[in-house]
Design goal:
Number of strands of chain A: 2
Largest sheet of chain B: none
Radius of gyration of chain A: 21 Å
Order of helices and strands of chain A: HHHHHHHEHHHHEHHHHH
Strand content of chain A: under 5%
Largest sheet of chain A: 2 strands, antiparallel
Number of helices of chain B: 11
Shape of chain B: globular
Order of helices and strands of chain B: HHHHHHHHHHH
Number of domains of chain B: 1
Structural class of chain A: mainly alpha
Oligomer: heterodimer
Chain lengths: 350, 293
Amino acid sequence: MTTASATAESAGAPARRISGRLAWLVVLLVAAAVAPFVLSNYHIFQATQIVVYAIAVLGFNLLTGFSGQISLGNGAFYALGAYTSAILMTHYDVPYWATLPVAGAVCFGVGFLFGRAVTRLEGLYLALATFGLAIAMPQVLKLDAIEPWTGGSQGVVLSKPASPLGSMLGDDRWLYYFCLAVAIVLFAAAWNVMRGRTGRAMIALRDHPIAAGTMGIHVPSYKARVFGVSAMYTGIAGALSALVAGFVAPDSFTFLVSIAFLIGGVVGGVASIFGSLFGAAFIELVPDLTKQVSELWPSWHWLADVQWPAYGVLLIVTMMVMPGGMAGLVYSVQLRIAASAQRAHRPPRS
Amino acid sequence: MQAFFHQLLSGIADGAIYASVALALVMIFKATHQVNFAQGEMAMFSTYIALALTQAGVPYWVAFVVTLVFSFVVGLAIQRLLLRRISRLPHASELTAVVVFIGLLIIFNGLASFLFGSMVKEFPTPFDPAAWYGSTYLSSHEVGMIVMTLIVLGIVFAFFRFTRLGLAMRAAAENPQSSRLVGIKVGWMLALGWGLAAVLGGVAGMMAAHKVFLEPNMMAGVILYGFAAALLGGIDNPWGAPIGGFLVGVLVNLAGAYVVGSHLQQAIALVVIVAVLVFKPSGLFGRTVVVRL
């Protein structure tokens, strides 16, 4: 479907466009770097949350957008990552930063095995199986047998990571920069993978699995690996979310988490790396916005109540009119501008 | 032994619900090769309509019929007004369909919370608790539920087997192009199929609501068992779906009682789904599909 935006992102675009993109990237990074010094504490928390969601939505996009495997259950890996991190910190006194690689590795392993089991089948079945995974996850987390570690339905409370720079950089800001650094590494890695051989193989898997197979791409193993990587990204995001929220509990990992990633992915553009950022901002800020509106104008309180149905409508409309999401929209606007610029340069026809 | 029988029979009663849901899923899958993730939420929404009617003083069976008509119209309308357009989009893909169904799922779920509140509500049963067919093993509601489901399944199968319209619908699902050539309105057949699936879901919802209580997330578990049932029976076999439903009902109840405990029942459904997909993707009674290059 959104092949156009995907190939533009992965294949080499003209040099002028790359430098333009680089300029945008620098602006974005500078904005991200100074943000904590201009924002209030609550907004720093929100920004941190956006960064965390961005990683998770990117994980979703790698799987669903780029390699065409529909996952409705990435929330399960988010939960797995969060719990891995929480258990390591509370039971084994592992420092918070060291829990991230473990959470990533655990999620990669589980995701790889799950993917290996079900990816031999059509995409629809994967959607079904992951849907089941997402629904069953809270029940599994409440399981009595693992309660000593997971705390049952009470969950686990974590202490907030302390800033190594002390009062120079508050704990909230430190956590923000920490998440930002992790996100930058993961985004750069995804970008690098997607423009190389592996990325092209993933897109080939999506667009024509049979042709990809005949070209020598081992389809099931590639699919399982992509599933593992997606689970890893989501798991690391989950681990970060545990640090940000300060606790983990089964009821924060319902099916709606997976749906939120789907919304973020679709709205931002499923086959776009930077679309993930937009999608993450969307799923963090829009609920907050509707809440603020209903607090300011109580007669508008229904706005917060119809939020989920409105998301549903948005999902359907986005799929109908701009399947490339925000990234697809931006890309087509860029194309228009480029085309009209070209027309302007051409001498008028006599 | 008595406890075992009790678990077995109440598994069959639960299975009746899963059988209807599974059959609804299979009907849509057969016609369109799509899985309706919103099936459960549509059923839940219908059940709220039934509750509103009975609370307004409408007799149960009248409310029952009105609700089924409502479900039918909603199902038909979704197919005619929305899905038909989606399937005609130039960029339509599997992802488009799945995202649209998830969109429908959250629309129905959110609308139910918005309109009816998210409190857990009791739902009436038409079967008198003191009726003669109740026993120590099964409540009269459970017996009624099983009989009800068998009647509905009977009607559905008779409809597809013995009526011209049923034949036309089967033809449209099996081979749309040839059906169109012999004058069957394939588009409308699909819409009818959606309506019927919604009716089946509505029956399941109203039967389930007395047991699990009515709330917007009531069907999340049920739809999962419904998927497991449909896959186990073979997702393209309408006969397999009810059998899968009863099997899943019994399996989940027995495993919940004797093996894993009642807290892991949804995980059993997940295990069934994954196990079927890995070891026998065509299910017990499905056709093995060979793809031609």
